Structure formats: structure tokens, C-alpha cells
Amino acid sequence: MLDEKHGIVGGYVPERADWTIDQDWHLYTAEEHATWKTLYERQMKLIPGRASQHYLDGLADLPITVDAIPDFERLSDVLEKRTGWRVVAVPGMVPNDVFFTHMANRRFPAGQFIRKAHQLDYLQEPDVFHDIFGHVPMMVNPVMADFMQAYGEGGLKAMRLGELDRIARLYWYTVEFGLIAEPQGVRIFGGGILSSFTETRFALESPSPNRIGFDLERVMRTHYRIDEFQETYFVLPSIDTLFDMANTDFGPIYERLKSVRDYGLAEVLPTDHIYTRGTGEYHRALA
């Protein structure tokens, strides 16, 4: 198994060079559609007042409904008209170069499988609910759509420069686990949170994690957790921050960061804009 953030799978040999597969929507079982329904219904009860308005607007515009796992072709036809993106089915996580190439060409690789009924609250590998319900609604927003493409292009460059850790941190703390300041308060836009029943509440309401104002170089110096809730979340001041990053040359940043240390999972700096200084109680209890 590769240790990269978008890597998979010892021994798996894809039939296609780009790792795409047919979704085979007609092969989903009634039980699998029922699992989708359960996941969808309980998230829809949670996200009002917690999800970003950008996400809610996107969800309302797409054929993502309670009744069944979405058909990627039908979904893509709508999404492509809005922002030029299409969803392509993959068997799970894919190698980094494949992931970045798809993203750079406005193709979002989504897991085609859905978790089992006994795995509702945690799945190590992102499935169709995580990818489609969690991520795709934000891609209706043109700023996010441009950022995601730029991230794919930047990821390919980061691979050549040996800077995958830096670019992965940016994705983690925005696309996956990002918060955003909106007129009504801090809201969630990261798909890793919005597809998680437990983290949707933890990220906004638990006293345990830090919530810190987003700063690009600060984020790219900060470690993250892959096996638990985050100890720190970063809050974008607005969606326009993503627009700025989509037009950023990361090369000089990589050079600057080579001479400075990284930050710990829960570290708070004197220069941080602190929305919430966490108690750390949740993660202390895990020790």
C-alpha cells in the first residue's frame, strides 16, 4: 500500500490507465440504496445551520436526493453545465499522479462503492457518500471549481518538486476539513466533515479542538490526523480565499518552508487569529 494521501492498493491492476471504472449504477442493491438513504437523511437533519451556504446552494442544484445513490452520468451532466466538472468512478483511492491529473482536467474521481450498514460512522477509504454528498455540492460554486482544478495542477507540480506533504495539508484543511466564516457564523464546507455524522457536530460545537483563522503558510506547516477528529480546524475568512490560492505560485512558498519547522496537531501560535482555543479534552481521553 502506498503511503500517499490519494494512494491505494498493493497488487491492484487497473483495467484503464486512468483508473476509471464503470459506475454500473444498475447493479446497486436495494440494501445499498437503503444505506445511502440512511446516511442522507441523518446528515440532512444535521447540516442546516452548520453547513456553508455555498454547499447548501450546490446541493439544491444537483440531482443528489434521498431516494438512491446518484447516477454519475446524470449528476455530471448537470455539474458540467455549471462549472465544467464531471464525476468519474474509481475503485477507491487512486495513485497521486492519477488523482491530480483528473483534477487538473476537471474530472472528480469518486469511489463507486458504498459502505456497509455496520460502517455508517467510520470508513477508512472514502466511498460514494463521502465523495458525492460531501464534496460535489461545493463544486457547483465557480470559485471552488477553479480552486480544485488549480489544486490538481499544483499537485502535479508538487510531485515533481518533492512537496506532496505540503500540498496535501492544504487539501486536508480546506477541501476535506475546512470551515468558513459566513455572516451567520462559522460554517462547514469540507466534505470530510459534511459526510460525517459525528464530525459535523464535533467540528463546530465541541470545546476540544482549536479553530484558527486560515493562513496559507501556517496550514502548509501543520500536521493533521487521518485516524480521528482533527485537533485543529482552520477557518477561511471567505470563499474568495480559495480564489486567491487558485492563482498562487507555490514554488517560492515551498522554498521558504524548507528552512522552518512544522507545527504540531494542536499547537497554537501567538500570531494565530483564534476563533476558539480548544481544551484538548477529547484527544487527551484517547491517550
Give a verbal description of the structure:
This protein is of the alpha/beta class and 287 residues long. The chain has helices at residues 30-46, 53-61, 72-83, 96-104, 128-135, 142-161, 164-176, 191-194, 197-205, 216-220, 240-246, 251-257, 281-286; strands at residues 86-90, 107-111, 179-182, 185-188, 210-213, 232-236, 274-276. The protein has a five-stranded mixed β-sheet with strand order 4-3-6-5-7. The chain is globular and about 55 Å long. The protein starts with 29 loop residues before the first helix and ends with a helix.
Short overview:
By secondary structure, the protein is α/β, with parallel strands linked by helices. It contains 13 helices and seven strands.
Report low-confidence residues grouped into runs of 5 or more: 1-10
Return the average pLDDT rounded to an integer. 93
- Look at the helices and sheets and give the structural class: alpha/beta
* Major sheet: 5 strands, mixed
Shape: globular
The radius of gyration is 18 Å
Name the strands of the widest sheet in spatial order: 4-3-6-5-7
Q: In oligomeric terms, what are we looking at? A: single chain
| DSSP strand tally | 7
Share of β-strand residues: 5-15%
Q: How far apart are the termini?
A: 27 Å
Which short descriptors sum up this protein?
287 residues, alpha/beta, 5-stranded mixed beta sheet, two-stranded parallel ribbon, globular, disordered N terminus
